[in-house]
Design goal:
The structure holds 2 protein chains of 2 kinds. By secondary structure, chain A is α/β, with parallel strands linked by helices. Chain A has a single domain, classed as STAS domain (Transcription Regulator spoIIAA), CATH 3.30.750. Chain A is built from 4 helices and 5 strands; from the N terminus they run E-E-H-E-H-E-H-E-H. Chain A has helices spanning about 20-40, 55-70, 85-90, 105-120; strands at about 5-10, 10-15, 45, 75-80, 100. In chain B, strands 1-2-3-4-5 form a 5-stranded mixed sheet, with helices on both faces. In chain B, strand 2 (about 200-205), helix 10 (about 210-230) and strand 3 form a beta-alpha-beta unit. Chain B folds into 2 domains: about 5-190, Globin-like, CATH 1.10.490.10; about 195-305, Transcription Regulator spoIIAA. The model of chain B is unreliable at about 1-15 (pLDDT under 50). Chain B is α/β, with parallel strands linked by helices. The chains are: A alpha/beta, B alpha/beta. Chains A and B meet through helix 3 and helix 4 of A and helix 10 and helix 11 of B.
């Protein structure tokens, strides 16, 4: 399943709707990195609300996406991790170290807006 | 109005069907080698039992009333009379030859009654001891010419009483376990409140020891509260936690990490000097955890993170110390 990527102003929003294969994740990574460059995006939001499993590969890919987009000047926020997923993730040691997380899409957008203000002020 | 003990006698509570299930009964009987010939032998002394029942019961209660511990259960004459009557029924029931599911269920309920009125197990066992001895002496007396039969019958009786004892003890254990389970449940529910202090700010005061199960439940409750309250900051206060070990610390870190995955930041407050020493000595990495001395500072910092400030309104009541100074 291809993950739709929506462009919303300076942000890209990828909403994962279903369980993803490793290939799907790889596609998502390539597509996001390309589009960040193409649209000169300042922020990326990956919404995982619909995911009911988060394995080490998925978690690593998300981390990689965050690092890659940062190199391209865009901040990535992972949003919508459900309580049960969060719990099983930490038990597996998948803590998405150093990556922004937010409760849902709305909070994610606010988080990016805040970061943007901060960067501008600097 | 029936007295408590009497009320329970009238409305015995059956424990889980597990004990009274047919297969289970069969197994219990088989284990004691309680078979048809035993039933026949017991039936054979039914007439005899009727003859000396009253005598044995009287002796038995005379014995019971000699001890303060057991006497307290029979203060009321009405209760004593009723219990004697039930005891007589039971005594005759032993030789009636009918040991079906009904009989078992009855035994189980009697066990439950004894547990509920807090009759000590030793008194219960003592009763059987007394019965066996009382019956044995009369049995050998009656079958003077056939000691073999007396012995065989006595063994049959012993098997049956052990069956009954087993049922009663299991009922005791079952009742106690139920109580313990219920209490644990209650303690668990009481022990992990997650409080919404301000919009987006959760307070989680932890009191008492944290074990694996509690830590798990605490984390679950915290995470769900984060979602339902859309919390952005959590203050975990561990002032009431007496000690921390590696496991507990890891549980806390897990909870904090999981909350962060949901976009909530956590501040830990109330770390005592002892706990601070333990944590450092154990080499637990708390670099990812924000800690603040006490709850007040923790809340203040949380408010800061949320962009809130608390302002005293002019003319509002001042705290006492402020007025005096």
């Amino acid at each position: 399943m291809q993950v739709p990527i929506l462009k919303q102003g300076g942000y890209l929003i990828a909403s994962i709707q279903d369980a993803l294969t490793d290939d799907d994740l790889a596609h998502l990574q390539t597509a996001l990195v390309r589009q960040v460059r193409q649209f000169r995006s300042r922020g990326v939001i990956i919404d995982v609300t619909a995911l009911d499993v988060m394995d080490s590969f998925a978690s690593r890919t998300l981390r990689h996406i965050a690092y890659m987009t940062r190199l391209l000047g865009a901040q990535t926020v992972i949003v919508g991790i459900q309580p049960d997923i969060a719990f099983s993730m930490v038990q597996l040691g998948l803590t998405l170290e150093g990556i922004e997380t937010a409760l849902d899409l709305e909070e994610g957008l606010m988080c990016l807006a805040r970061q943007g203000r901060y960067n501008r002020d600097r | 109005m029936a007295s408590p003990s009497e009320r329970f006698l009238l409305h015995p509570m059956l424990p889980e069907a597990a004990i009274t299930d047919d297969k289970e009964i069969h197994q219990r009987k088989e284990f004691l080698e309680f078979r048809d010939e035993d039933v026949e032998r017991l039936q054979g002394i039914n007439e005899l039992a009727k003859k000396y029942a009253d005598d044995v019961i009287e002796q038995f209660y005379h014995h019971l009333l000699q001890f303060e511990e057991t006497r307290t259960f029979f203060r009321e004459p009405r209760v004593l009379a009723r219990v004697k009557e039930l005891q007589r029924e039971y005594f005759l029931g032993l030789t009636q030859g009918n040991y079906d599911a009904q009989y078992i269920a009855n035994r189980v309920s009697i066990g439950a009654v004894h547990e509920r009125i807090d009759l000590p197990v030793k008194a219960y066992l003592g009763m059987y001891n007394f019965y066996l001895r009382a019956v044995a002496s009369r049995l050998f007396e009656a079958f003077k010419e056939a000691p073999d039969r007396a012995l065989a019958t006595f063994f049959s009786l012993m098997k049956l009483t052990f069956l009954d004892i087993g049922l009663a003890i299991d009922t005791y254990i079952y009742s106690r376990e139920t109580t313990i389970r219920e209490q644990q449940e209650a303690i668990r529910e009481l022990s992990t409140p997650v409080l919404l202090l301000r919009e987006g700010l959760l307070l989680l005061p932890i009191i008492g020891l944290i074990d694996n199960q509690r830590a798990r439940q605490l984390t679950e409750q915290l995470l769900h509260s984060v979602r339902t309250n859309r919390a952005k900051v959590i203050v975990i206060d561990i002032t009431g936690v007496p000690s921390v070990d590696t496991q507990v610390a890891n549980h806390l870190i897990q909870a904090i990490d999981a909350a962060r995955l949901m976009g909530a930041r956590t501040i830990v407050t109330g770390v005592s000097p002892e706990i601070a020493q333990t944590l450092v000595t154990l080499g637990i990495d708390l670099s990812r955890v924000t800690t603040v001395g006490d709850l007040q500072n923790g809340i203040e910092q949380a408010e800061q993170l949320l962009g809130l400030t608390v302002v005293r309104v002019d003319g509002a009541a001042q705290p006492p110390q402020a007025r005096e100074s």
